[in-house]
Amino acid sequence: MAVGLAREADVTFPAGPRMQVSRSATVLVGRVSGYRQEVTSRSSPEGGGPVEWAVSGELVRHRVLKGERLVGPVPFERAERAPWLSAGLSPSSWERSYGNLTDRGQAVMFLGPGPDRPVLTIVPTADGDRDLAGLVADIVRFRALPRSED
Predict the structure, then answer these.
(1) What distance separates the 2 farthest-apart alpha carbons in the chain?
(2) Rg (CA), the chain
(3) Measured CA distances, 76 to 60, 128, 143 (Å)
(4) Which residues are 32's β-sheet partners?
(5) Residue 7 CB partners (closer than 8 Å, separation 6+)
(6) Best CATH choice for the domain 2-143 from the list 2.40.50, 3.50.30, 2.40.160, 1.10.760
(7) Distances in whole angstroms, Cα of residue 145 to Cα of each of 6, 72, 110, 141
(8) CA dihedral defined by 72, 78, 81, 123, rounded to 10 degrees?
(9) 90 contact partners, CB below 8 Å, separation of at least 6
(10) How far apart are the first and last CA of the chain?
(11) Residue 72: what pLDDT?
(12) Is 24 in contact with 121 (CB distance < 8 Å)?
C-alpha cells in the first residue's frame, strides 16, 4: 500500500519537497551564516527597487536529515526575486512559498550525489506552516519505512 501511495504522490506532485528529497543524496538543516546579497536587477534603470538578487553564504551548525554527515560549513549561492514577479520563473513555486533566505535564519539544503556534493537548492525554514525541516524529516522517515508490494 505504501508503495502505491508513494507512486501516486510522485505523479500528482511532480515538484516539491518530496521530489527534492528523492533527488538529493544528502539533506541538511542549519543556520545561514556569512549572508551576502548582490542586486542583479532593479525595477527601473534609474535605480528602482531590487527585483532580482543573488545571495550567498554558508550553512553552519547543520544536522543531517538524509544521507551522510558533513563536517564544517557548506557554502551556497541562490538566486532570489521579488515575490510579485511572475510565478513561472525560478525558483519553483514551492520554494518561493517559503520566502527568501535571511542572515542567521534557518534553512534546508538539498545536496546532489558525488564527492563534491553540489548544492541542488537551499530553502528557508521556520515554525508552524513554514516548517520545511519538519516536513522533510517526515518525508525521509516515510521513505525509510519497509514497503510491501500489493
Answers:
(1) 63
(2) 17
(3) 11, 25, 27
(4) 59
(5) none
(6) 2.40.50
(7) 11, 30, 21, 7
(8) -50
(9) 79
(10) 6
(11) 94
(12) no
User: Can you read off the three cell numbers belonging to residue 110?
Assistant: 538539498
C-alpha cell at 76: 551556497
Torsion, Cα of 22, 26, 29, 31 (10° steps): -130
Torsion of CA 84, 103, 55, 47, to 10 degrees: 60
- β-bridge mates for residue 108, sequence order: 29, 123
pLDDT of the residue at 1: 45
Q: State the amino acid at position 101 in one-letter form.
A: L
Give the containing element (helix H, strand E) for 94.
helix 93-96
Question: Which of the residues in the chain have pLDDT under 50?
Answer: 1-13
Residues 27, 108 contacting (CB under 8 angstroms): yes
What are 88's three cell numbers? 513561472
Place of cell 527585483: 51
Write the single-letter amino acid at 21: V
